[in-house]
Amino acid sequence: MKNGKMKVYGASMAGVALLSGAFFAVQSAKASQSYSSAILPATSVTTQSATPAIEGRATLRAMINAGGRRTNYWFEYGTDPSDATTSAGFIATEKAAAGKGSVPMAFATDISKLSPKTAYYFRAVIENASSTIRGDIAAFSTK
User: Do 116 and 62 belong together in one domain?
Assistant: First the structure.
C-alpha cells in the first residue's frame, strides 16, 4: 500500500472478482509484506463427437482442461438418454489420468461390443480433489 491505496497488478480487486487465469499481487502497509498468487484456470470438460462406429466399436472424444489440478476422466454411455439424469443407467469406462495441465487437451477412449443399428448417448466426465464435472451429452449410431 502506498498512501492508503492498494497496488493491483493484472486484475481489478473491486469485489475481489478475478477471472480465471488471472494473477494478482498485494503489497501490505508494511513494506516487508507482500503477497501474490496465481489463480488457476477453470477446470472444464467438453464432450465432442464420437468417431464413426464401425463393427461394434467407437471412439469417444472430449476436450479437457484440468485447470492445473490432478484430474481423471472417463466416459459414460448407454442407449437410453433418460439414463443421463443419473450415472446408474450409463456404462462407465475406466478412469484415466488427464494430468494437471492448464490448457484444453484432447482425450479419447475406445469402446466396443456395441449393438448394431443402435443409437448411443455419451458424455465425458472429469474428477479432481474438489469436484466432479459431467460434460454435455452427445450421440452416435452404430451401423
Answer: yes
User: What pLDDT digit, counting tens, does each position of 48-68 carry?
Assistant: 999 988 889 999 999 999 999
Cell reading at 68: 492445473
Entry pTM:
0.72
pLDDT tens-digit series, residues 95-139: 999 999 999 999 999 999 999 999 999 999 999 999 999 999 999
Residues 6 or more apart whose Cβ sits within 8 Å of residue 116:
56, 142, 143
pLDDT value at residue 41? 77
Statement to judge: residues 87 and 22 lie in one domain: no
Q: How far apart are CA 111 and CA 138, in angstroms?
A: 15
3-state secondary structure of 85: helix
Specify burial of residue 91 (Cβ count, 10 A radius: 0-12, 13-18, 19+): middle
CATH of the domain at 130: 2.60.40.10
User: 35 is written with which cell numbers?
Assistant: 503477497
